[in-house]
Protein backbone atom coordinates (compact mmCIF):
# COMPACT_ATOMS: atom_id res chain seq x y z
CA UNK A 1 0.00 0.00 0.00
CA UNK A 2 2.81 2.40 0.89
CA UNK A 3 4.55 1.63 -2.40
CA UNK A 4 1.32 2.33 -4.31
CA UNK A 5 0.82 5.69 -2.54
CA UNK A 6 4.48 6.60 -3.05
CA UNK A 7 4.02 6.06 -6.79
CA UNK A 8 0.67 7.83 -6.88
CA UNK A 9 1.91 11.06 -5.35
CA UNK A 10 4.27 12.01 -8.24
CA UNK A 11 1.50 11.26 -10.73
CA UNK A 12 -0.84 13.67 -8.93
CA UNK A 13 1.83 16.36 -8.58
CA UNK A 14 2.59 16.08 -12.30
CA UNK A 15 -0.75 17.70 -13.10
CA UNK A 16 -1.78 19.22 -9.76
CA UNK A 17 -3.16 22.60 -10.95
CA UNK A 18 -5.09 20.95 -13.79
CA UNK A 19 -6.45 18.24 -11.50
CA UNK A 20 -7.58 20.85 -8.97
CA UNK A 21 -9.34 22.78 -11.71
CA UNK A 22 -11.10 19.67 -13.02
CA UNK A 23 -12.03 18.43 -9.53
CA UNK A 24 -13.54 21.77 -8.50
CA UNK A 25 -15.30 22.23 -11.84
CA UNK A 26 -16.71 18.70 -12.06
CA UNK A 27 -17.69 18.61 -8.39
CA UNK A 28 -19.24 22.07 -8.07
CA UNK A 29 -20.67 22.69 -11.55
CA UNK A 30 -21.05 19.49 -13.58
CA UNK A 31 -22.17 17.20 -10.74
CA UNK A 32 -25.13 19.40 -9.84
CA UNK A 33 -26.37 19.49 -13.43
CA UNK A 34 -26.09 15.70 -13.68
CA UNK A 35 -28.22 15.46 -10.53
CA UNK A 36 -30.77 17.88 -12.01
CA UNK A 37 -31.61 15.47 -14.84
CA UNK A 38 -31.46 12.33 -12.69
CA UNK A 39 -34.31 10.79 -10.67
CA UNK A 40 -32.77 12.46 -7.60
CA UNK A 41 -33.33 15.93 -9.05
CA UNK A 42 -36.59 16.78 -7.26
CA UNK A 43 -35.28 15.63 -3.88
CA UNK A 44 -32.07 17.59 -4.44
CA UNK A 45 -34.04 20.76 -5.06
CA UNK A 46 -36.07 20.17 -1.90
CA UNK A 47 -32.99 19.64 0.28
CA UNK A 48 -31.19 22.64 -1.23
CA UNK A 49 -34.25 24.81 -0.65
CA UNK A 50 -34.19 26.11 -4.23
CA UNK A 51 -36.71 26.41 -7.04
CA UNK A 52 -36.32 23.92 -9.94
CA UNK A 53 -34.55 25.09 -13.08
CA UNK A 54 -36.18 25.54 -16.45
CA UNK A 55 -35.15 22.18 -17.90
CA UNK A 56 -34.87 23.22 -21.55
CA UNK A 57 -31.15 24.00 -21.34
CA UNK A 58 -30.08 20.82 -19.56
CA UNK A 59 -31.84 18.72 -22.22
CA UNK A 60 -29.82 20.33 -25.05
CA UNK A 61 -26.75 18.42 -26.28
CA UNK A 62 -24.93 21.70 -26.95
CA UNK A 63 -25.25 22.56 -23.25
CA UNK A 64 -23.41 19.39 -22.29
CA UNK A 65 -20.72 19.99 -24.92
CA UNK A 66 -20.19 23.44 -23.40
CA UNK A 67 -20.13 21.96 -19.92
CA UNK A 68 -17.44 19.40 -20.83
CA UNK A 69 -15.38 21.77 -23.00
CA UNK A 70 -12.60 22.19 -20.36
CA UNK A 71 -11.96 18.44 -20.39
CA UNK A 72 -11.46 18.55 -24.17
CA UNK A 73 -8.77 21.25 -24.03
CA UNK A 74 -6.93 20.28 -20.82
CA UNK A 75 -4.11 18.46 -22.74
CA UNK A 76 -2.91 21.94 -23.75
CA UNK A 77 -1.71 22.50 -20.18
CA UNK A 78 0.50 19.43 -20.21
CA UNK A 79 1.94 20.38 -23.60
CA UNK A 80 2.80 23.92 -22.39
CA UNK A 81 4.27 22.54 -19.17
CA UNK A 82 6.49 20.09 -21.04
CA UNK A 83 7.61 22.81 -23.46
CA UNK A 84 8.55 25.30 -20.71
CA UNK A 85 9.97 22.87 -18.12
CA UNK A 86 13.60 22.90 -19.42
CA UNK A 87 13.71 26.69 -19.20
CA UNK A 88 12.39 26.66 -15.64
CA UNK A 89 14.78 23.89 -14.60
CA UNK A 90 17.75 25.87 -15.91
CA UNK A 91 16.62 29.15 -14.33
CA UNK A 92 15.49 27.98 -10.87
CA UNK A 93 18.97 27.49 -9.32
CA UNK A 94 19.81 31.13 -10.01
CA UNK A 95 16.72 32.58 -8.28
CA UNK A 96 17.37 33.54 -4.64
CA UNK A 97 15.06 32.45 -1.84
CA UNK A 98 13.41 34.97 0.48
CA UNK A 99 15.64 35.61 3.55
CA UNK A 100 14.15 35.18 7.01
CA UNK A 101 14.51 38.87 7.85
CA UNK A 102 12.73 39.96 4.68
CA UNK A 103 9.94 37.44 5.28
CA UNK A 104 9.40 38.62 8.87
CA UNK A 105 9.39 42.32 7.95
CA UNK A 106 7.07 41.97 4.95
CA UNK A 107 4.64 39.60 6.70
CA UNK A 108 4.52 41.73 9.85
CA UNK A 109 3.86 44.91 7.89
CA UNK A 110 1.09 43.28 5.85
CA UNK A 111 -0.62 41.86 8.95
CA UNK A 112 -0.30 45.21 10.70
CA UNK A 113 -1.97 46.94 7.76
CA UNK A 114 -4.78 44.36 7.69
CA UNK A 115 -5.32 44.62 11.46
CA UNK A 116 -5.55 48.42 11.27
CA UNK A 117 -8.07 48.31 8.44
CA UNK A 118 -10.18 45.63 10.16
CA UNK A 119 -10.17 47.73 13.32
CA UNK A 120 -11.14 50.89 11.45
CA UNK A 121 -14.11 49.12 9.86
CA UNK A 122 -15.22 47.51 13.18
CA UNK A 123 -15.03 44.04 11.65
CA UNK A 124 -15.48 42.19 14.96
CA UNK A 125 -18.63 44.06 15.98
CA UNK A 126 -20.10 43.75 12.48
CA UNK A 127 -19.46 39.99 12.54
CA UNK A 128 -21.22 39.57 15.89
CA UNK A 129 -24.05 42.08 15.60
CA UNK A 130 -26.23 40.48 12.89
CA UNK A 131 -29.22 38.48 14.16
CA UNK A 132 -30.44 36.84 10.91
CA UNK A 133 -29.08 35.76 7.54
CA UNK A 134 -30.21 38.84 5.59
CA UNK A 135 -28.72 41.21 8.14
CA UNK A 136 -25.51 39.14 8.23
CA UNK A 137 -25.08 39.34 4.44
CA UNK A 138 -25.85 43.06 4.45
CA UNK A 139 -23.25 43.56 7.19
CA UNK A 140 -20.77 41.66 5.04
CA UNK A 141 -21.49 43.89 2.04
CA UNK A 142 -21.00 46.94 4.23
CA UNK A 143 -17.73 45.64 5.66
CA UNK A 144 -16.26 44.70 2.28
CA UNK A 145 -17.22 48.07 0.83
CA UNK A 146 -15.61 49.92 3.74
CA UNK A 147 -12.49 47.75 3.61
CA UNK A 148 -11.92 48.33 -0.07
CA UNK A 149 -9.89 46.32 -2.55
CA UNK A 150 -6.36 46.59 -1.14
CA UNK A 151 -6.84 45.01 2.32
CA UNK A 152 -8.81 42.15 0.80
CA UNK A 153 -6.11 41.61 -1.81
CA UNK A 154 -3.45 41.54 0.91
CA UNK A 155 -5.40 38.89 2.84
CA UNK A 156 -6.59 36.72 -0.05
CA UNK A 157 -3.50 36.89 -2.23
CA UNK A 158 -0.25 38.19 -0.70
CA UNK A 159 -0.56 36.65 2.77
CA UNK A 160 -1.89 33.40 1.31
CA UNK A 161 1.28 33.13 -0.77
CA UNK A 162 3.51 33.97 2.20
CA UNK A 163 1.84 31.23 4.27
CA UNK A 164 2.33 28.67 1.49
CA UNK A 165 5.95 29.78 1.07
CA UNK A 166 6.64 29.19 4.78
CA UNK A 167 5.17 25.69 4.51
CA UNK A 168 7.36 25.07 1.45
CA UNK A 169 10.51 26.14 3.34
CA UNK A 170 9.83 24.29 6.61
CA UNK A 171 10.56 20.66 5.52
CA UNK A 172 13.86 21.57 3.85
CA UNK A 173 15.31 23.87 6.54
CA UNK A 174 16.95 22.98 9.82
CA UNK A 175 15.51 24.47 12.98
CA UNK A 176 12.00 25.57 13.73
CA UNK A 177 11.90 29.08 12.26
CA UNK A 178 9.95 28.26 9.10
CA UNK A 179 7.60 25.86 10.88
CA UNK A 180 6.78 28.53 13.47
CA UNK A 181 6.40 31.11 10.69
CA UNK A 182 4.05 28.80 8.78
CA UNK A 183 1.87 28.07 11.82
CA UNK A 184 1.78 31.71 12.93
CA UNK A 185 0.95 33.05 9.49
CA UNK A 186 -1.70 30.39 8.91
CA UNK A 187 -3.49 30.95 12.24
CA UNK A 188 -3.34 34.74 12.02
CA UNK A 189 -4.63 34.79 8.44
CA UNK A 190 -7.42 32.33 9.30
CA UNK A 191 -8.65 34.72 12.03
CA UNK A 192 -8.59 37.66 9.61
CA UNK A 193 -10.55 35.70 6.99
CA UNK A 194 -13.19 34.68 9.54
CA UNK A 195 -13.79 38.36 10.32
CA UNK A 196 -14.79 38.94 6.69
CA UNK A 197 -18.01 37.06 7.55
CA UNK A 198 -17.51 34.81 4.51
CA UNK A 199 -17.22 31.03 4.23
CA UNK A 200 -15.20 30.28 1.14
CA UNK A 201 -12.04 32.39 1.65
CA UNK A 202 -11.22 30.52 4.87
CA UNK A 203 -12.29 27.11 3.53
CA UNK A 204 -10.16 27.52 0.41
CA UNK A 205 -7.19 28.67 2.47
CA UNK A 206 -7.44 25.62 4.73
CA UNK A 207 -7.66 23.27 1.75
CA UNK A 208 -4.69 25.05 0.14
CA UNK A 209 -2.67 24.37 3.28
CA UNK A 210 -3.71 20.72 2.89
CA UNK A 211 -2.46 20.75 -0.71
CA UNK A 212 0.80 22.28 0.55
CA UNK A 213 1.13 19.50 3.13
CA UNK A 214 0.55 16.94 0.37
CA UNK A 215 3.15 18.53 -1.90
CA UNK A 216 5.84 19.26 0.70
CA UNK A 217 5.48 16.62 3.44
CA UNK A 218 8.16 13.98 3.65
CA UNK A 219 5.91 11.58 5.56
CA UNK A 220 2.22 10.64 5.22
CA UNK A 221 1.30 13.20 2.51
CA UNK A 222 -2.08 11.60 1.77
CA UNK A 223 -3.00 11.45 5.47
CA UNK A 224 -2.07 15.12 5.87
CA UNK A 225 -4.17 16.09 2.85
CA UNK A 226 -7.20 14.12 4.08
CA UNK A 227 -6.98 15.51 7.62
CA UNK A 228 -6.68 19.14 6.50
CA UNK A 229 -9.44 18.70 3.89
CA UNK A 230 -11.75 17.32 6.59
CA UNK A 231 -10.92 20.34 8.72
CA UNK A 232 -11.87 22.53 5.76
CA UNK A 233 -15.20 20.69 5.33
CA UNK A 234 -16.01 21.09 9.03
CA UNK A 235 -15.03 24.76 8.82
CA UNK A 236 -17.43 25.20 5.90
CA UNK A 237 -20.32 23.70 7.86
CA UNK A 238 -19.59 25.67 11.03
CA UNK A 239 -19.09 28.95 9.19
CA UNK A 240 -22.24 28.38 7.16
CA UNK A 241 -24.25 28.02 10.35
CA UNK A 242 -22.60 31.09 11.87
CA UNK A 243 -22.77 33.31 8.77
CA UNK A 244 -26.36 32.33 7.92
CA UNK A 245 -27.36 32.63 11.60
CA UNK A 246 -28.89 29.14 11.72
CA UNK A 247 -28.32 29.04 15.49
CA UNK A 248 -29.35 31.65 18.10
CA UNK A 249 -25.83 33.03 18.49
CA UNK A 250 -26.96 36.48 19.54
CA UNK A 251 -28.84 35.32 22.62
CA UNK A 252 -25.86 33.52 24.11
CA UNK A 253 -23.05 35.69 22.81
CA UNK A 254 -21.58 36.33 26.25
CA UNK A 255 -21.05 32.59 26.89
CA UNK A 256 -18.56 31.12 24.37
CA UNK A 257 -19.20 27.52 25.42
CA UNK A 258 -22.93 27.90 24.81
CA UNK A 259 -22.19 29.53 21.47
CA UNK A 260 -20.05 26.54 20.46
CA UNK A 261 -22.75 24.09 21.53
CA UNK A 262 -25.45 26.03 19.69
CA UNK A 263 -23.43 26.23 16.47
CA UNK A 264 -22.47 22.54 16.72
CA UNK A 265 -26.09 21.45 17.22
CA UNK A 266 -27.28 23.59 14.30
CA UNK A 267 -24.50 22.16 12.10
CA UNK A 268 -25.60 18.59 12.80
CA UNK A 269 -29.19 19.57 12.05
CA UNK A 270 -28.57 21.43 8.79
CA UNK A 271 -25.54 19.68 7.26
CA UNK A 272 -27.52 17.82 4.51
CA UNK A 273 -28.91 21.09 3.23
CA UNK A 274 -25.53 22.86 3.53
CA UNK A 275 -23.80 20.14 1.50
CA UNK A 276 -26.57 20.30 -1.13
CA UNK A 277 -26.21 24.10 -1.23
CA UNK A 278 -22.44 23.73 -1.77
CA UNK A 279 -23.06 21.56 -4.85
CA UNK A 280 -25.98 23.71 -6.04
CA UNK A 281 -24.17 27.05 -5.59
CA UNK A 282 -22.26 26.97 -8.89
CA UNK A 283 -24.26 24.34 -10.76
CA UNK A 284 -27.51 26.29 -10.72
CA UNK A 285 -26.06 29.12 -12.82
CA UNK A 286 -24.78 26.98 -15.72
CA UNK A 287 -28.11 26.57 -17.59
CA UNK A 288 -28.79 30.29 -17.24
CA UNK A 289 -25.41 31.13 -18.76
CA UNK A 290 -26.17 28.78 -21.65
CA UNK A 291 -29.57 30.44 -22.22
CA UNK A 292 -28.20 33.98 -21.98
CA UNK A 293 -27.38 34.63 -25.66
CA UNK A 294 -31.02 33.95 -26.56
CA UNK A 295 -32.56 35.90 -23.69
CA UNK A 296 -30.78 39.28 -23.52
CA UNK A 297 -31.06 42.57 -25.40
CA UNK A 298 -29.09 43.37 -28.53
CA UNK A 299 -26.94 45.79 -26.53
CA UNK A 300 -25.64 42.89 -24.43
CA UNK A 301 -25.57 40.33 -27.26
CA UNK A 302 -22.52 38.02 -27.34
CA UNK A 303 -19.56 39.25 -29.39
CA UNK A 304 -15.78 38.92 -29.15
CA UNK A 305 -15.33 42.54 -28.09
CA UNK A 306 -17.12 41.80 -24.82
CA UNK A 307 -14.30 39.52 -23.68
CA UNK A 308 -12.33 42.63 -22.76
CA UNK A 309 -12.36 43.41 -19.01
CA UNK A 310 -13.86 46.90 -19.39
CA UNK A 311 -17.48 45.88 -19.99
CA UNK A 312 -20.77 47.60 -19.34
CA UNK A 313 -21.90 46.80 -15.82
CA UNK A 314 -25.54 46.44 -16.88
CA UNK A 315 -24.50 43.69 -19.33
CA UNK A 316 -22.32 41.75 -16.90
CA UNK A 317 -23.48 38.09 -16.99
CA UNK A 318 -22.94 37.48 -13.27
CA UNK A 319 -25.44 40.23 -12.42
CA UNK A 320 -27.97 39.27 -15.09
CA UNK A 321 -27.94 35.60 -14.10
CA UNK A 322 -28.30 36.38 -10.40
CA UNK A 323 -31.30 38.62 -11.12
CA UNK A 324 -32.98 35.74 -13.01
CA UNK A 325 -32.27 33.15 -10.34
CA UNK A 326 -33.22 35.41 -7.42
CA UNK A 327 -35.72 38.00 -8.69
CA UNK A 328 -36.95 38.79 -5.16
CA UNK A 329 -33.56 39.47 -3.56
CA UNK A 330 -33.80 41.42 -0.29
CA UNK A 331 -30.14 42.38 0.12
CA UNK A 332 -28.93 45.98 0.00
CA UNK A 333 -26.24 45.22 -2.63
CA UNK A 334 -26.90 43.39 -5.92
CA UNK A 335 -25.79 39.77 -5.75
CA UNK A 336 -23.63 37.94 -8.24
CA UNK A 337 -23.81 34.43 -9.66
CA UNK A 338 -20.44 33.70 -11.31
CA UNK A 339 -19.49 30.71 -13.44
CA UNK A 340 -16.38 28.99 -14.77
CA UNK A 341 -14.33 30.66 -17.48
CA UNK A 342 -15.82 28.58 -20.32
CA UNK A 343 -19.41 29.38 -19.31
CA UNK A 344 -18.64 33.03 -18.74
CA UNK A 345 -16.86 33.25 -22.10
CA UNK A 346 -19.90 31.68 -23.79
CA UNK A 347 -22.23 34.28 -22.24
CA UNK A 348 -19.93 37.07 -23.42
CA UNK A 349 -19.02 35.90 -26.91
CA UNK A 350 -20.77 32.63 -27.73
CA UNK A 351 -18.82 29.52 -28.68
CA UNK A 352 -15.76 31.49 -29.78
CA UNK A 353 -15.62 33.12 -26.33
CA UNK A 354 -16.01 29.77 -24.59
CA UNK A 355 -13.16 28.22 -26.58
CA UNK A 356 -10.84 31.24 -26.19
CA UNK A 357 -11.37 31.39 -22.43
CA UNK A 358 -10.98 27.63 -21.98
CA UNK A 359 -7.73 27.55 -23.95
CA UNK A 360 -6.39 30.62 -22.12
CA UNK A 361 -7.04 28.95 -18.76
CA UNK A 362 -5.14 25.83 -19.83
CA UNK A 363 -2.22 27.92 -21.10
CA UNK A 364 -1.91 29.67 -17.73
CA UNK A 365 -2.13 26.36 -15.86
CA UNK A 366 0.52 24.98 -18.23
CA UNK A 367 3.00 27.62 -17.03
CA UNK A 368 2.44 26.42 -13.47
CA UNK A 369 2.98 22.80 -14.56
CA UNK A 370 6.34 23.86 -15.99
CA UNK A 371 7.53 24.54 -12.42
CA UNK A 372 7.28 20.85 -11.44
CA UNK A 373 10.97 19.97 -12.12
CA UNK A 374 12.05 22.78 -9.77
CA UNK A 375 9.80 22.18 -6.75
CA UNK A 376 12.35 19.99 -4.96
CA UNK A 377 15.08 22.13 -3.44
CA UNK A 378 13.59 25.43 -4.58
CA UNK A 379 10.86 26.58 -2.13
CA UNK A 380 9.99 29.68 -4.13
CA UNK A 381 9.23 27.58 -7.20
CA UNK A 382 7.40 25.02 -5.03
CA UNK A 383 5.18 27.68 -3.43
CA UNK A 384 4.43 29.18 -6.85
CA UNK A 385 3.51 25.72 -8.13
CA UNK A 386 1.03 25.19 -5.27
CA UNK A 387 -0.40 28.68 -5.78
CA UNK A 388 -1.19 27.47 -9.28
CA UNK A 389 -3.72 25.14 -7.66
CA UNK A 390 -5.21 28.16 -5.88
CA UNK A 391 -5.56 29.98 -9.21
CA UNK A 392 -6.97 26.83 -10.81
CA UNK A 393 -9.85 26.75 -8.35
CA UNK A 394 -10.84 30.31 -9.24
CA UNK A 395 -10.66 29.54 -12.95
CA UNK A 396 -13.28 26.85 -12.25
CA UNK A 397 -15.58 29.34 -10.52
CA UNK A 398 -15.03 32.75 -12.13
CA UNK A 399 -14.46 34.47 -15.48
CA UNK A 400 -10.96 34.46 -16.94
CA UNK A 401 -9.91 37.69 -15.24
CA UNK A 402 -11.21 36.47 -11.87
CA UNK A 403 -8.14 34.36 -11.09
CA UNK A 404 -5.87 37.11 -12.41
CA UNK A 405 -6.95 40.51 -11.09
CA UNK A 406 -9.69 40.02 -8.48
CA UNK A 407 -8.73 40.45 -4.82
CA UNK A 408 -7.77 36.76 -4.63
CA UNK A 409 -5.94 36.92 -7.97
CA UNK A 410 -2.29 36.54 -8.90
CA UNK A 411 -1.16 39.75 -7.26
CA UNK A 412 1.29 37.63 -5.25
CA UNK A 413 3.31 37.36 -8.47
CA UNK A 414 4.00 41.10 -8.13
CA UNK A 415 5.35 40.43 -4.64
CA UNK A 416 7.76 37.85 -6.08
CA UNK A 417 8.68 40.13 -8.98
CA UNK A 418 9.36 43.06 -6.64
CA UNK A 419 11.57 40.91 -4.41
CA UNK A 420 13.51 39.47 -7.35
CA UNK A 421 13.95 42.92 -8.90
CA UNK A 422 15.26 44.45 -5.66
CA UNK A 423 17.42 41.40 -4.91
CA UNK A 424 18.85 41.39 -8.42
CA UNK A 425 19.55 45.11 -8.33
CA UNK A 426 21.37 44.82 -4.99
CA UNK A 427 23.47 41.90 -6.17
CA UNK A 428 24.35 43.71 -9.40
CA UNK A 429 25.31 46.81 -7.41
CA UNK A 430 27.53 44.76 -5.09
CA UNK A 431 29.29 43.05 -8.00
CA UNK A 432 29.84 46.37 -9.78
CA UNK A 433 31.29 47.87 -6.60
CA UNK A 434 33.61 44.87 -6.09
CA UNK A 435 34.90 45.10 -9.68
CA UNK A 436 35.43 48.84 -9.33
CA UNK A 437 37.37 48.35 -6.10
CA UNK A 438 39.44 45.57 -7.65
CA UNK A 439 40.64 47.98 -10.32
Walkthrough of the structure:
By secondary structure, the protein is an all-alpha fold. It folds into two domains: 1-97 and 285-408, no CATH class; 100-283, no CATH class. The protein has 20 helices and no strands. It has helices spanning 2-14, 16-36, 41-48, 61-67, 69-73, 75-91, 100-120, 123-129, 133-147, 149-169, 177-194, 200-216, 221-243, 256-283, 286-295, 317-325, 341-369, 379-395, 402-405, 412-438. Helix 2 (16-36) packs across helix 14, helix 3 (41-48) runs antiparallel to helix 14 (256-283) and helix 7 (100-120) runs antiparallel to helix 10. It is globular and about 75 Å long.
Proportion in helices: over 70%
* Average pLDDT metric: 80
Task: Indicate the overall shape.
Answer: globular
Tally the beta strands.
Answer: 0
**Number of helical regions:** 20
Q: Label the structural class.
A: mainly alpha
Profile the largest sheet.
Answer: none
Number of domains: 2
Q: Helix and strand succession?
A: HHHHHHHHHHHHHHHHHHHH
Radius of gyration: 23 Å
| Poorly predicted sequence stretches spanning 5 or more consecutive residues | 249-254
Say what oligomer this is: single chain
Intertermini distance: 64 Å
Assess the beta-strand content as a share of residues. under 5%
Amino acid sequence: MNAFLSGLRPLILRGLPVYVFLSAYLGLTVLGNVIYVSPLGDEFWRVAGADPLPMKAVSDISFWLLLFLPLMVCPISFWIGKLMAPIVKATAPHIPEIPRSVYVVVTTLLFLYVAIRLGQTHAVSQFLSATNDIEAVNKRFQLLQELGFLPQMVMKSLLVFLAVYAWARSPAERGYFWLIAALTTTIALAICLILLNMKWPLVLFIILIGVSAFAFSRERPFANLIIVTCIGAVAYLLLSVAVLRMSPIDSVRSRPLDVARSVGAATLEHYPRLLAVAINRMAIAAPYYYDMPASISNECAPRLGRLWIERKLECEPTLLVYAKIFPDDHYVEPGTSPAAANLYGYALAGWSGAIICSVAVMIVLGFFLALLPAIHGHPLAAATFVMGAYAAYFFSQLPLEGALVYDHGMWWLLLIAAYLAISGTLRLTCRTRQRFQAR
